[in-house]
Specification:
The structure is a single chain. The protein is built from three helices and four strands. By secondary structure, it is of the alpha+beta class.
């Protein structure tokens, strides 16, 4: 699968309305969100876009490169990071793989919904949410 056509997640709880309601005023739901102007040039063959995470109703930024038929490699940043941290790795890795780098929910240029709308502290920004995001993306 590619980033624009995520597979459905059967049996998972949907918080799309809460995510949309709590999204910052800068967030735009759906594929109409404008791509950011980056402080660096994307490498040759690297594309950038937004994937709309339907389950949560949020835009997730990604970068991708490499042959569509190549084995997929997903690069995930650490805390305080974003997919820009992989910019020097995407090109060389894309010679052998279809490489994806994503911003986790709440990081980089991905949407940053207000966690207060999701109940208890740490109920939105946690490893379970990010694992769901990565599973939905691939």
């Amino acid at each position: 699968n590619n980033a624009t056509t995520p597979r459905p997640l059967a049996g998972r709880r949907s918080d799309a309305s809460a995510c949309r309601a709590a999204a910052s005023s800068e967030a735009v739901a759906g594929p109409s969100k404008a791509l950011p102007e980056l402080p660096y040039a994307l490498g040759e063959g690297v594309e950038q876009g937004f994937w709309f995470w339907e389950e949560r109703g949020c835009n997730i930024r990604y970068q991708a490169a490499g042959p569509e038929s190549g084995p997929a490699l997903v690069l995930i940043h650490g805390f305080g990071g974003n997919c820009d941290h992989w910019r020097k790795n995407i090109g060389p890795l894309s010679e052998h793989y279809r490489v994806f780098s994503i911003d986790l929910l709440g990081y980089g240029y991905s949407d940053k919904p207000c966690p207060k709308a999701h109940g208890e502290p740490n109920s939105l920004y946690n490893f379970y949410t990010w694992a769901d995001q990565i599973n939905a993306f691939v």
